[in-house]
Amino acid sequence: MGRRGGTRNLLPLAKRMRHQPTETEARLWSVLRAGRMAGAKFKRQEQIGDFIVDFVCFKARLIIEADGSQHLDSEADKARDARLGSQGFRILRFWNNDVLGDTDAVAQAIYTELTINA
Fold it and tell me: Any idea where the DUF559 domain is (predicted)?
């Protein structure tokens, strides 16, 4: 049994992913870490059930995902989002090029979700 109700233990994979972030994940983490985003505490590469999410704030029930083109119209992502949504999570997805090209706009969207749409 994995962490947080999963049937698999994905902790070793999550740890490896934390130690080898993509450029996009590193950029987002610099915005989200240490309560910098409206005081919210985010964790990165965290297992929830049988999924590893890029970033999660459990208190706000908010998941942030940074996606590349392989996620375009992904049925697996739709099913994953539905499953996580049924557990009370809200999911914000951002394209990698948006995170890298306009980090401030991405940060503003996350801030808005945390403060206005909570």
Answer: 12-114
